[in-house]
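User: Run a structure prediction on this.
Assistant: Running it now.
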Amino acid sequence: MKKILLATDGSPHAEDATWFLAHLPHGDKVEITVLSVLHVPTAGSVTGLGDWVETILERERERAIDTFAKIELMFDGANVKLKHLIEQGHVSETIISVAKREQSDFLVMGARGHSQVERLILGSTSDYVATHASCSVLVVRPTGFRKANHPIRIAIAYDETGPAEAALEEIAEVRLGAEPDLRVVSALFAGGVDESDRRKSTELAANKAADRLRGTAAHVRVESIVHDHIGEGLVRYLEENQCDIVVVGETPRTRLGRVLMGSTSRFVLRHAPCSVWITRNRMLQGIPKKTPQAETAST
């Protein structure tokens, strides 16, 4: 996590995402590009209103500059390098395009913004970006952590698959340090005569995964859930344990594949009560054969 794109529209949810990122532990210096996108109406909707549109866009530019000044204060003294980009275009597509152009490996945004569908579980922009972006994405939902006294609670969904292993690698590279409460959560389908044996095998793998993380994080424990719907089981666990972030791995797909994504990560993205970190970077780069300790030592 060295090049971060922070998409903001100055809304309270975007401010929560900024605050969350500013307080997310990280070991190395990172470059943060703050992106403000000015939506340009289609030609048909602005016929005869050219001067009015320019006035609105100018106001939005001024607002974007003011928002960036506030963000600079939030990162004052942090080990980061900030820059600001103001772009015009379709908001979702522009965020994805800039992330690719800037070669961002991590994209952060709030779950809701200035949208007429703000009351939905996930706003249309964050939903689209999280689904289509080629890099890892953190969608921040307000959980009350900003006013809480407890360490940040991070749950990693783990099931021995390639995407889950990649998620483990990505978290290990961040070097979370002593503060976070990190849980490796193994998920198992309920039912079947071999459920007991499968559960033992899954928990053994999860404990090995936790051991790999203990080289980069001080507080790591293993939890297990058994449910007839993995996504629902994870969401219930997150609710009952008041987690602040859930980390789910996803295999990079074609553009069409992401649009049709009906996976556990998609379900969690839509229904989790907390922030959702979808990891894609390690699957793109290939999971290394060396241990996480060696990986972070050379990061």
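The CA atoms of residues 37 and 91 lie 6 Å apart.
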